[in-house]
Specification:
Length: 160
């Protein structure tokens, strides 16, 4: 969250002339309600099931860029499906940068916490092992969107 997945994903897809999928947006469109409502009304387990369904569907497509929610890759089946379908890139940033980017955003249910910065640190620690399995990790803390896209393109062109 707050690392640039959607922004970078859209720009990357445009550069590649591929289709872009944002799994969180697809979940909201299909459920006809914001993710925060899904969490509040049906819980995180229900949300994660919807997320897995969407990931399974979009991974069947060719020439796509997929932006997932930060917790999606923690599910081993999601991780395997994404790995099978292409290059998995983890965008990261310092907890402080993430906090600055998402501060005040009420659409992020996992951050509705008395201490959101501590929650960000906790989520990053809990997800570190899953994130480490990505084919490539880019720290977006100080990079522009264009620089991130160029870095990804260089990697994808080198090892399609």
């Amino acid at each position: 969250m707050g690392t640039g997945k959607s922004t970078v994903g859209k720009k990357l897809a445009t550069r590649l002339r591929w289709q872009f999928f944002d799994t969180d947006l697809l979940i909201e469109q299909e459920a006809k309600t914001p993710i925060a409502n899904i969490f509040a009304q049906k819980g995180e387990t229900h949300f994660r099931a919807l997320e897995s369904e969407i990931i399974n569907r979009v991974c069947r497509e060719k020439e796509v860029v997929i932006a997932t929610g930060g917790g999606a890759i923690v599910n081993a089946e999601n991780a395997a499906r994404l790995q099978e379908s292409g290059v998995v890139i983890c965008l990261t940033a310092t907890p402080e940068t993430i906090f600055a980017r998402v501060r005040g955003n009420t659409d992020r249910p996992l951050l509705q916490d008395p201490n959101p910065l501590a929650k960000i640190r906790s989520l990053l620690a809990l997800r570190a092992e899953a994130y480490a399995k990505a084919d490539m990790t880019i720290d977006t803390t100080t990079l522009t969107v264009e620089r991130i896209v160029e870095t990804i393109l260089a990697r994808v062109r080198r090892n399609p």
